[in-house]
Amino acid sequence: MDQPLDPHLAEHSQGIHLPKPSFTPMLLGLGLGLMAFGALIGFITGSFWLVAGGVGLIVIGTGGWLVGNVRERIHSSETPAVAAKFAMWCFLGTEVIIFGMLISRVIAIWLVDREAHALLTEPIASLLLVSVNTFLLLVSSLSVVLGLNSIQEGKRGGLVLWLVVTTLLGATFVGIQGYEYSKLVSEGLTIGSSQFGSAFYLLTGNHGLHVIIGVIWCAVLIGRALRGGFTKEQHLGVEIFGLYWHFVDVVWILIFTLVYLI
Amino acid sequence: MSAHAPTTAPAATHHISTRTYLIVFAWLAVMTAIEVAIAALPIQEEVKVIALIALAVVKAALVVLFYMHLRYDSKWYWITLIVPIFFVLLVARFLIVR
Predict the structure, then answer these.
(1) How far is CA B35 from CA A13, A132, A207, B57, B63, in A?
(2) CB contact under 8 A, A77 and B74
(3) Which chain A residues have a beta carbon less than 8 Å from that of B61?
(4) What ipTM goes with this model?
(5) Does residue B69 sit within a domain?
(6) 3-state SS of chain A: helix, strand, coil percent to 5?
(7) What is the CB neighbour count within 10 angstroms for residue A50?
(8) Which of A42, A106, A114, A224 lies 20 to 30 angstroms, CA to CA, from A166?
(9) A residues 116-175 near B, CB within 8 Å?
(10) Residue A12 vs residues A6, A9, A17, A178, A201: alpha-carbon distances, Å
């Protein structure tokens, strides 16, 4: 390797680091396409095997991308914190549009289909169940920031503890949502029962998927923290995860009010 | 330095006191309880809708400003939020108000 003559020059001559070529983004794209195509075919034929295949490709693609990314970060210099945070905010900006459209669609439909919408809030026990779920997500947001505070004070044990709490709260949220789905299906609100059912499950299912991804991400962070991956000075991964998790919380705050309460 | 902890600019992160986080959480919890109460009460529909939307916006703003640190971070991050919100409101206006 050439030795730089001037140390100051060496500092600025590292160039742009590019990750290694990977086929996983293509798998992810293929999976998303297959899932959308499979859903279209499924609504016509009643068979959703293509959707399952698409989901499988998405899981493999995302998992492979995640593992590759973690390896890359371990063996190379990390993206500057400001750039990483800005990238996350840009990603969240795209999520704002996706969830904004889905929420708008649900509202537009229930304005003309009040009967289907009433299934969400009547009896009042249904509303209480969703309120409990809302509270769980709020607590999980608190646990993430308390974990961030812990590692900022150099307390790795505190970080692990609060991340475990976050994982458990997120998993409980998904479990309660599953229970709510089973109740709604038994009452006649299915994805195919009405336009409202389709829009409702698309919105809340998409949010639930985000929670599941967050839970998996949080579990990965716990493993990294246990191996000493975060310190008082280096904890960008926790902060980036926090941005994602709080965004998922914000989306639920809006869903809770605009879809369930009003 | 650990192999798992590459270089990062510490200045890009913010340390906010636990007390602030707890106060924000208390407000979020109280406002959620008020929302549920308003939804269950037999009050005028227009008042209910305005009150619930106002509470939801305040709650979302609290999370974004304090938990997501937008209050303390670069003002450039606001753009990534305001631009998509503008487009969502634009499209929602045509979707909902038909």
Answers:
(1) 56, 13, 21, 12, 17
(2) no
(3) none
(4) 0.86
(5) yes
(6) 80, 0, 20
(7) 18
(8) A106
(9) 121, 124, 127-128, 131, 134-135, 138-139, 141-142, 144-146, 149, 152
(10) 10, 5, 13, 52, 51
Burial class from Cβ neighbours inside 10 Å (0-12, 13-18, 19+) for residue A138 reads buried
How many CA within 13 A on the CB side of residue A66?
14
> Does residue B97 belong to the interface with chain A, where contact is any CB pair within 8 Å?
no
Q: Is residue B27 assigned to a domain?
A: yes
Could you tell me the maximum CA-CA distance found in chain A, to the nearest angstrom? Answer: 76
DSSP symbol at B97: -
Domain boundaries, position B26: 18-73
- Across the interface, do B6 and A73 touch by the CB < 8 Å criterion? yes
Contact B60, A253 (CB under 8 A): yes
Per-residue pLDDT of chain A (262 residues; tens, 9 = 90+): 444 444 444 444 455 566 677 888 888 889 999 998 888 888 888 888 899 999 999 999 988 888 887 777 666 655 667 788 888 999 999 999 999 999 998 888 878 777 767 766 665 567 888 999 999 999 999 999 999 999 999 999 999 999 999 999 999 999 999 999 998 888 888 888 888 888 999 999 999 999 999 999 999 999 999 999 899 988 999 999 999 999 999 999 999 998 888 8
- Give the span between the Cα atoms of A185 and A188, in whole angstroms: 5
Query: What SS3 string covers A40-67?
Result: HHHHHHCCCHHHHHHHHHHHHHHHHHHH
Tokens of B65: 């400003």
Does B33 fall in a domain? yes
Answer whether residue B85 is part of any domain.
no
Task: Nearest by CB to B36, from A131, A224, A236: name it.
Answer: A131
Could you give the number of structural domains in chain B? Answer: 1
Q: How far is CA B9 from CA A27, A77, A89, B87, in A?
A: 33, 12, 18, 33
Q: How many CB atoms lie within 10 A of CB A76?
A: 13
- The two tokens of residue B81 are 């939020």
